Structure prediction request, 96 residues.
Amino acid sequence: MSRRCELTAKGPQVGHKVSHSNHKSKRRFLPNLCNVTLMSEALGRSVRLRISTNAIKSVDHNGGLDAFLLKANAATLSPRAVDLKRQIEKKLAAAS
Prediction:
């Protein structure tokens, strides 16, 4: 399983661990990923995603999973999230 957020595409970054004597050695900064179950109102079901805590805040700020996915660029989403976005757009188009 990759260490990448499914909604925001945040992944590991590389930097230095700096000792007291100022020696620098490589280290990885990993994103804070959580397994979360989010509810989709359009689909009427819950969806399990592995997303960063920053993405959880963004989803809440945008008004839920459906609103976040409709605003999101498909290039940054994971294949599962892109499929979910298509399902939501199809469901909303059929409803209107």
Summary: The longest strand covers residues 33-40.
